[in-house]
From TrEMBL:
Signal sequence interval, chain numbering: 1-33
Protein name: L-rhamnose mutarotase
Keyword Membrane: no
Gene3D superfamilies reported for this sequence: 3.30.70.100
Record-level Gene Ontology MF annotations: racemase and epimerase activity, acting on carbohydrates and derivatives
Family annotation (PROSITE patterns): PROKAR_LIPOPROTEIN
InterPro entries: Carb_Metab_Mutarotase, Dimeric_a/b-barrel, Rham/fucose_mutarotase
Keywords, sorted A to Z: Signal
Superkingdom to which the source organism belongs: Bacteria
Species whose genome carries this gene: Pedobacter kyungheensis
Length: 151
């Protein structure tokens, strides 16, 4: 036998469903609003020294980044850091907030722990600047020349 609901019961059920949907939409909107900071990707390049043993050491260090280094990245506000390799060239993609001050972020990351500064000094011995970089400059920031986005 089909269950019959009174008009009041139907209205209450309808109100309950509407309130539930409204709550879901409100939560989703709040979550989206909480993350309104836009990010940007910055791309840098560096070459590794012309010494296969040193290149392997560099790669081995990057298989297990020191935890203090990643904690420093987090504290400084880096969203994501990725490294790619082709032979002796390294490409680094850094995702940061759109209004980020990279110099300041680097200082914050290094100040997190002595190990952060030690890491940068250690990695520096494996790196050489790319052609066209300023004297003493190792990492060079690239310029975006093309972008395709499929929304």
């Amino acid at each position: 036998m089909a269950r019959k609901f009174s008009n009041t019961a139907r209205r209450n059920k309808f109100k309950f469903i509407c309130m539930g949907l409204l709550l879901c939409f409100s939560i989703a909107a709040c979550q989206k609003a909480a993350d309104t900071t836009k990010d940007k990707d910055l791309v840098f390049v560096v070459n590794l020294v012309d010494n296969e043993k040193k290149v392997q050491e560099y790669l081995n260090y990057h298989k297990k980044i020191w935890p203090e280094v990643e904690a420093g990245f987090k504290k400084a506000g880096y969203r994501k850091i990725k490294l790619y390799r082709f032979n002796k060239s390294i490409v680094m993609i850094v995702t940061v907030p759109e209004n980020a001050d990279l110099n300041r972020m680097g200082q914050v990351a290094e100040s997190y722990s002595e190990k952060c500064k030690a890491w940068n000094q250690l990695m520096s011995q494996y790196q050489v600047g790319v052609a066209g970089a300023a004297p003493g400059q190792k990492w060079a920031q690239t310029e975006e020349i093309y972008s395709f986005v499929n929304p």
